[in-house]
Automatic annotation (TrEMBL):
Gene3D superfamilies in UniProt: Aldehyde Ferredoxin Oxidoreductase Protein, subunit A, domain 2 (1.10.569.10), Aldehyde Ferredoxin Oxidoreductase Protein, subunit A, domain 3 (1.10.599.10), Aldehyde ferredoxin oxidoreductase, N-terminal domain (3.60.9.10)
This protein's record includes keyword Cytoplasm: no
Residue ranges annotated for the Aldehyde ferredoxin oxidoreductase N-terminal domain, each copy included: 27-245
Assigned keywords, A-Z: 4Fe-4S, Iron, Iron-sulfur, Metal-binding, Oxidoreductase
Cofactor: tungstopterin; [4Fe-4S] cluster
Entry keyword annotation includes Iron-sulfur: yes
Family recorded in the similarity comment: Belongs to the AOR/FOR family.
GO molecular-function term, one example from the UniProt record: oxidoreductase activity, acting on the aldehyde or oxo group of donors, iron-sulfur protein as acceptor
UniProt-recorded name of the protein: Aldehyde:ferredoxin oxidoreductase
Amino acid sequence: MSVEKLKEAHRLLAQFKYTPGTVEKGYANRTLYVNLSENKVAEKFVIQEMKEKFIGGRGFGLKLLWDGITENTKWDDPENEIIIAPGPIAGITQYPGAGKSYVVSLSPLTHTVIDSNVGGYFGPLLKFSGFDALEIQGKAENDVIVFIDGVNGTVTIEEAPLEDVNSHILVEQLTEMYAANEEDKVNVSVVSTGAAAEHTLIGMLNFSFYDKRRKAVRIKQAGRGGIGTVFRNKKIKALVVRGPRIKGDLNHPADKTLLDKAGIKLHKEIATLDNSQNKMRIGGTTYLTKIMNDYDILPVNNFKFGSHPAAKNITSDAFIKYFNLTGHDGCWYGCTLSCAKAINAFELKTGPYKGQKVLVDGPEYETVAGVGSVCGIFDPEYIIENNFYCDTYGIDTISFGTIMAFLMECYENGIINKEITGGLELNFGNAEAAMEVLHQMARGEGFGKIAGLGVRRLKKLFVEEYGADPAFLQDIGMEVKGLEYSIYLPKESLAQQGGYGLTNKGPQHDEAWLIFMDMVNNQIPTFEDKAEALHYFPMFRTWFSLNGLCKLPWNDIVPADNRTTAEPAKIPEHVQNYVDLFNGVTGMNITKEDLITQSERVYNFQRVFNLRMGFGTRKHDQIPYRSMGPVTVEEYEARPERYDRQLKEKVGFDPEGKTTEEKMAALRKYREDQYQKLCDAVYKRRGWTENAVPTLSTLQRLGMDFPEVLEVVKRYL
């Protein structure tokens, strides 16, 4: 069906006119509110206190969601919101990685607040269309598209019955529909999901950008926490923004020379050093697979093991031959790191599009290891195909892979069988069965619909329905707070165990990735050292989410003399770059210490938000034992020298003559005790109680002692 026919079927439900205005010092100074239940559109003005305390991005999303819901709101209530916000630095073209958006909502998986970051053009184009955030509340009766025309100053809600739901088709249809002409396609961005998002709890969002070189629409993913499921629950088919033509000064920065200086410096580093460091411009983030495997931290078979001989089949060398490397691959203007790789004309072997040749965005490391090694699958073409279908169906590849790995271990332990799975043999390594589960998720049928509940609910189901051992499932079910683990093996890194368990939203590595500092380089040997790292790095990475920045240009490319600096893990030259960027855009005069304080405010606010929703105390920070050590005899005996040596040197336990079970029990007691000591040290460093609650003095120090915040905290003190 032609785009014209699709458009003719639209029914206008609401129209709002506004004056686009200009962005000043990184802010549009207003947000856009859309209520789908009432077909209402309005704008809200951003007060100075909101900019000072919440900065932008994730901070704006948290504040708007806090104000929009109550402590009794559920993820599928109409009053739940989806907020998309870019941040004050987002949209600059001088510095790599400055096009990120942050999405905030109540999660179907965790039942509390979730945030997820994403590339693509939507966030910057939203801001340049006049809004620092888009806040969506309510539920439509039928599928709708919200269109923000930042050129003509109109916002419409349109009933859209005929367009495809799956993203790879929908983004092409809507880019064609809403762009004024071929040249204008680069100024249009679409947020969408897919068919599986409405049948599972692990739906994600795709944010589009038009690739002029390939003459195709590409997508990046806000993957974590099931926000795509919320999107479809609200009957949103798509969000579309059409912004002005991008120029280097649309943020109207206070001092553009600071941006230019920092950008020129980093562009030179990338050009001269990337090839000798991580080769991101050639292989994207797939370079990580070999490193993880070499250091025994690549999750294999539901995080049992950290390496596998077949991992050589899914390293960057395996994928580079598929990547179309004919030019720039950034997901926002000016990003010379160019990690957003793509595969042209990949012929699908399964599913409803079998035989078609499609564009595949990625895969990135998390997908390679997530749908690959963690499931015991080392076939690059399976990974590429799974990547494509997860994207177009609107499924988070991280959650999908971790769920499938859990199911495979349950299957091999006889907890579930072919009768329960509908005939699927879910052994580790069975790529065909994994693909069928994914297709069933999209159809909303069979075992795929059950799998889409997520690890936490599957554990409960298997205990109640099939008599499974709850302790064993707790040990091997790789989730915390209801969110599935991202794809790193933390068994030998206590700091990374804390980096997963002590997060606000669940085990996502964008808060703290400390494996190398802790396990490989031994830079943080004491509890106090680890606690300091688990304070600084989550706060530093939070700052990216407030400002619309990607973390990769910070530490995936480093200055040649970085090793000689006093704190090489922090990449101090790049930290100063970010201080200069913020000051250059906003006209403020923050220091690197102020940067951390800005993040502390929002981080502690998010912790209190969890408490408000009934979560967020110490018990919610506990992790499955598979994160800490060997759950099964098979795991211990795969690395007996390592574990025996640790028992002697760290535990003071002589393994000679002991059974494997006895040795495992001694090691477990030690490692669980170490984790509790880490919790104590981290809570103290963050200014929290032993129950993980921010103290009143901490909130007062940060200026976050709003009456409604203190009211929540006092319930837990």
